[in-house]
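Structure request: CPL domain-containing protein, Megaselia scalaris.
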Amino acid sequence: MRQEFYGDLYKNTKDNNVKTLGDCYKETEQMKVAILGSVKSNLEHIANKNLVDNSLAIVKAIKEHLVKICIHEHGHLFFLSVLNSMDDTKAIKKSLFDPIYENIEEIIVDKWGRRVIEWFIAPAEKDFIHPHMLKILDEGLKFGKKDKDLRRKEIQEQVEGPLSESIQKFSKLYLKDGHVGLFTASILNKC
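Returned structure:
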């Protein structure tokens, strides 16, 4: 089966003397360029199949660790880059925001967790995230198909209702101290 990667010559007939790629062109050095070109072409074809959507695979892998990622100093940046690059906004709400919303009390008391929630409401807001970090996050946008403003607006529309309900439900927590109070004011301004 491996020989089929080496070119059309081996698709119809198998050579028992060929066990590795080097064996293909050991006797005929002129075939080396053609065989390596064929191997490269076949491997590129396989790699570009996109059988699994990378962003959805990442989301499934991190789902059980979302709270820890959101409140981690560097993990929240990883999470923001995933949010910023996913095109499927309904999947973002269902797979990412809903589990976070279940643990909202734990997330909003942490400064890194507040950044994640702020990104849902006001993505790319320079008041919350350093401009250099925004530049790095925007580099991931070149892989998305959807316009960034449209994606961000759709996310905001989906989460503003649940966040408003959360503020009503846990009002003491949202007004606990100065940092959380400013965070709450920014949510109320955007919703």
